């Protein structure tokens, strides 16, 4: 796979920017740097990037505001870089439409993996023309509403199935609790996170070999869930 | 005594005195025999000289009596404005002490030392103002006449026939650094008087004319000269002592003065004072209260109190003793206090009585063979009657024996009725047994009645029943019966003996009863002190001590009380909390402040600000003044009693000590805490510096090597360097996370985001986060399928799992398994993470949770020893608990329990296929 994608890095720390630029450039990506949120938004609007890496701790504006600014006109994948102390900002940014996040410090390997998933997710490779999603032994046939693990059909309740389809539609993307509750149960249920956790638990017991160490339905602790894509 | 050197103790005392004097201002007294000798004139002359020498001199109060030559001298001196005091519609002008203290001159002139200040002033007497000036380090020039000296007061009144009310304690005169005698021969004084140069107050002109007789003036001059000579003599002796000219130190004399209720008591005290001065001796004035003296009238007891107070003013120690036998009690006390001399008044009893019953003087002389006895003659006592202190005349209760005074008329009458009844009953009993017993035995029945009455109702009724008994016995039983006539004259002797025996028995019974009562009072006092000290000792916290203090003082002294404490700047404040019901509200803070600053009592019944209702006592402790105890006594006189004073003093010092103890304890705790914090900071610093420096050294080394020698390094070496940089950096990141968590948990900044969730998910999250480091350790997770939801902050609990897993990886050899299990136990969810490593050293199970504690280990594994501390803090924040033990197989097991509560309900759907 050749990497000709354009990536904008919005980050005020010179050292982090330097390491990101080196790492991404060596992978063949085209890198555009922005030091401030405003500059980043301008670059995003003019350069038509394939992906944006956004630091939450910008000096001039709120990272969440940058995400909203981008989402106002574009569905370009946004990966957030956050520090441990920015837990709630991170969730706000994800709720605002960011696709993924990385907590500093992170390794290059992890970053590149996330970038790959984000770019692929954007081109929706996992869902084929027949409306089927598959990863490893898990297969979800959206047209025939059929779920199989290792070829054996799994019986799901309507809610479990709906939960799974939401995850499949955003495969690889981090989905916050709030977003999943709204999508599966409706806007009145956004405060009832235990519904989501119970159904996720039963879904895991039906799909996973070892529910405590899930292969497909990954937990982003304190944030939400993500469906593994590879 | 062959030693020629001065006693070291005496020298030390001398040095201390010299030091106290150096800090104090110097007092110079211009001393004269009478008014008109020119004291003020002399004082002003001296002051002008000082001013000419460049000293800062201020005239605080100078009485010129409008004499031109004196007023002339005042010109050019700075005059301190006088303070106007309104008293009974007249405006009095008084010396302004506060203005003087504020002005702080080097030298101040304050005339008429014996002056009494207007009511409402801070001090009752001007000499007290002067004392305060001296205490403040200001030099004072003042003037006084010989007749105002306390100890000479009575002699002079006798000479001149005019009582003098305004007196100055001898101690003040003696403490003067200089005394300048202003002498004028009587003839010249009389000449000046004729010329109108001597001021005489209008209203006292006639008396004053009497005063200025030549004979009087000669006598006064002699007294003044002699007094000055005494002082010079004393100075000379001091000088000799200082310079070891002669070893004059002898055994220290101690005089014991026994006063009685008579009018001579005051003379006795003054005489004893002069004797004590002469002998340079300590002196103690005692009043022995016997059963007889208990029955004194209120006025007589007032007189005794006054005399004791006078003795205290003259520098004596006073005590009230109680006993059955005056002489015995006195001698016993003299022995315990090592008195070398006993001073007694001349017996006042008629000679025959003395011959018949003996007298105190005779008994003491007979019994105290080794003690010198001084007998002081009786002098005119018109003075002692004239002196009327309004404060004492108000007093109601004496010497702590309130009950005697509180006899109601009813009880008094009841006593006599019972005396009659007892006689009637005795007669009845005698009537019944008359036929069977001898007549003499009936007397016993009557005597029994007397004893009962004496024991219950005291002297009067028992005397009555003695007489009635004799009369009844005569009337009813002595032949001829039912007649007062007596057939046999020998019965007259029987009556006399019976009466005598009855009286003696009644007297002794009453004495015994009185002794018991006094003992009871003593015991109550001691018991109350004991109770106070025990309560205080068992108490912690300043507030509790204050509460106990107030309650105790309120109970024992029948007063409302409050303890006033200063703030950090030494300003006395009202207490903040409500306090006990006995607490006193609305005390005068300015008086309390003065008491706190000067460490002296003030208020009602004292010399300072006696106008108010309240008494203010300082609370002195070894480290300094703690605060002030303010009392609003229901009965002010009671507080003034010497015994009560002593009890109050003891209580006050106990309270002060208790307060100080609490403060010192708090201080010690603060220091301890500070030390611990310091220790913690040091541990933290050393831990961090080690844990940061090691990875940093590796990173700096590896990365610089990569930069410098990248050409020479082969791919494998570059890889290794990169790997070590990565690992070390990750380690540092972990440490930074832990420190951050710790800081947030300690600061209480962590707000748990608790949500209902399955434990499984959190375990999964932690395992996923740790996956890269768990390669060498198979982890088995055993969670029951039906585990209930727990309400936890998933991020926080994930940190717990991450730390526990990290520890397990760190302390166990590669390849050994790690188990995570959970089970419900009643209302708890108990989670266990166990390994198969070396386990926790015995006895360390609790210590491993301490901050910066690390189990001894090889190599440089690990962080700052914060992991388990953080875990426990997180679990505790969830309302749970955490502990550790070792598995029987040898591995370590860490457990934590989270409380289980009813999870929220959930609408279930039917499990149908979509």
Low-pLDDT residue intervals, each spanning 5 or more residues of chain B: 245-251, 379-407
From the alpha-carbon coordinates, what is the Rg of chain B to the nearest angstrom? 45 Å
Q: How is the main sheet of chain A built?
A: 5 strands, parallel
What percent strand of chain A?
15-25%
Radius of gyration of chain A: 18 Å
SS content category of chain B: alpha/beta
CATH architecture of the largest domain in chain A: 3-Layer(aba) Sandwich
Distance between the termini of chain A: 15 Å
Report the span from N to C terminus of chain B.
122 Å
Listing every helix as H and every strand as E from the N terminus to the C terminus, the arrangement of chain A reads EHEHEHEHEHEEEEHEHHEE
Question: What number of structural domains do the residues of chain A give?
Answer: 2
- Bulk shape of chain B: flat
Number of helices of chain A: 8
Number of strands of chain B: 25
Layout of secondary structure:
The complex is a heterodimer of chains A (230) and B (914).
Chain A: E1 6-10, H1 14-26, E2 30-34, H2 37-47, E3 51-55, H3 63-71, E4 78-82, H4 87-95, E5 100-103, H5 108-122, E6 132-135, E7 138-141, E8 146-149, E9 152-153, H6 158-169, E10 175-176, H7 177-184, H8 193-207, E11 217-220, E12 224-227
Chain B: H1 8-23, E1 27-32, H2 39-52, E2 57-61, H3 68-74, E3 78-79, E4 83-87, E5 90-94, H4 97-103, E6 107-110, H5 126-135, E7 139-145, H6 153-160, H7 170-174, E8 178-182, H8 186-194, H9 205-211, H10 214-242, E9 254-259, H11 265-279, E10 282-289, H12 291-294, H13 298-313, E11 317-322, H14 326-336, E12 341-345, H15 351-357, H16 360-367, E13 372-376, H17 382-386, H18 390-393, H19 402-405, H20 409-433, H21 439-457, H22 459-476, H23 490-537, H24 542-557, E14 559-566, E15 572-573, H25 589-598, E16 602-603, E17 615-621, E18 624-633, H26 636-640, H27 642-708, H28 715-746, E19 755-757, H29 759-770, E20 779-782, E21 790-792, H30 794-811, E22 818-825, E23 828-835, H31 867-877, E24 881-886, E25 892-899
Parallel strand pairs in B: 1-7, 1-8, 2-3, 2-6, 6-7, 9-10, 9-12, 10-11, 12-13, 20-22
Antiparallel strand pairs in B: 4-5, 14-15, 14-18, 16-17, 17-18, 19-21, 22-23, 23-25, 24-25
